[in-house]
Amino acid sequence: MKKISILALLGLLSVAVLSGCKDGTKKKEKLEGSVVVGITQDLDSLDPHKAVAAGTKEVLYNLFEGLVKPDQDGNLVPAVAESYQISEDGKTYSFVLRKDVKFHNGKTVTAEDVLYSLKRCAGMLETSDPEVQVVAALSVISDITASTENGATTIQVNLKEANTELIGYLTCSIIPCDYADQKTKPVGTGPFRFVSYTPMSSLVMEKNEEYYGKKASLKQVTFSISESTDAAFLKLQAQEIDVFPYLTSDQAAQLQDKYNIEVGEMSLVQGLFLNNKVKPFDSKEVRQAVNYAVNKDEILTMLNDGKGKKIGSGVYAGFGAYFNENCVNTYSYDPEKAKELLAKAGYPNGFAFTCVVPSNYTYHVQTAEVIAAQLKKVGITMNIQLIEWASWLSDVYAAHDFEATIIGLDSQLAPSDILKYYIGGSKKNFINYESEDFDTVYKAAVATTDTAKKKELYMKAQQYLADDAASVFIQSPSLMVAVSKAYTGYTFYPIYVQDMSTLYIPER
Length: 508
Prior knowledge:
The structure is a single chain. The protein has 508 residues and is of the alpha+beta class. The protein has 13 helices and 19 strands. Strand 6 (141-149) and strand 7 (152-159) form a beta hairpin. Helix 6 (284-293) packs antiparallel against helix 8 and helix 7 crosses helix 9. The longest helix is centred in the last third of the chain and has 17 residues, at 451-467.
């Protein structure tokens, strides 16, 4: 059996850890203090297995852990498990559990808790909860067993077929098997423990003094919930919050005297996503016309001073070896070509459609405004409808009831996860894209244990999305974060997390 680094498996790009002093000297950490972090959407669930939104998951990261968890370099490192191995044939995953892990309620983590958590996420429990977000990728599991030898407990996950990417999905949170209040008083194993939650106001957590690993420096973290980026920005200007991600370049420029502006890259696919089953976007030529009419360089320049990376398919640039660079320029800006395709598709005078955008994401709203102006030049009228985040989740993502939307898609550390949105018949395929060629290649990519072959197949899958103009894939935006000058240690990750365990107040 061999141990596999997710960095080697996925070829992810390393991201910088912004910590310590700028001159390289090391300052002593204070094990005290608190921080207020601004977020712009309410939490859709406190139960980690029921959370849907990336904004919720990035907060719950501080409370919960899986058998493994991501580090800032793109590796999946042991967490509740002290080590893991993947068999040569990719059909067996083995995890040796730590002996010293306790839940926030004082209970020691047992094999029963791990089996319950994994089976719950995989939809393998005899009685299922319809609110649990079953991880489709885990359907490949045939059984999960536990054994103890010489005092060490091993969890073995057996698969029906080879899958060397499954480790990227086994970050699912380990929770107590006999605890009934997860929805209101969540209990995990993370570096912080739950204190309180007030809907549309705040979630408060405190340092977990019983944490088995390196303990957090801060005593308390408050996630302050605002209804929009603009509302959060007002709090920033008043210095009512200490940390806030997802700034625009204009906002960042206004805050430089009060905050350090840390810059990283979002592990995100931002796109103008088109419902492929709704007229006129059921026409490939119309979708191609819209792609030619969108000027991505202008979007990056106007909204982010040119920062961010253009994309041309469903994988964000940070996936390194699995990112298909050739897709980026499949549709260069060409308004005349757009007009030709519109005429060919039967829309010589253009058409009008509605693009719904979550109102709490200012960046997506601003992107919509730029795109609307660009489309107008080729005769297409894009009406922007702002909706609440909860409505976006229910109407767009769940019910697929929309014409177009602008949003960012995140993923687990597995190329199959970011491309799951395009599998025919999948509930997550909210744009209703259908391609037998894509489905065939995707399935083959997941199944192969040959790294070179896997890369080749995922590249081909991305090219299908680009050639079919499944949507307008815009960019992996840059991530600008305001951090109060009283703190240091803010860390960027290759997935959506706000890790407050690395933040500290340096000794003055």
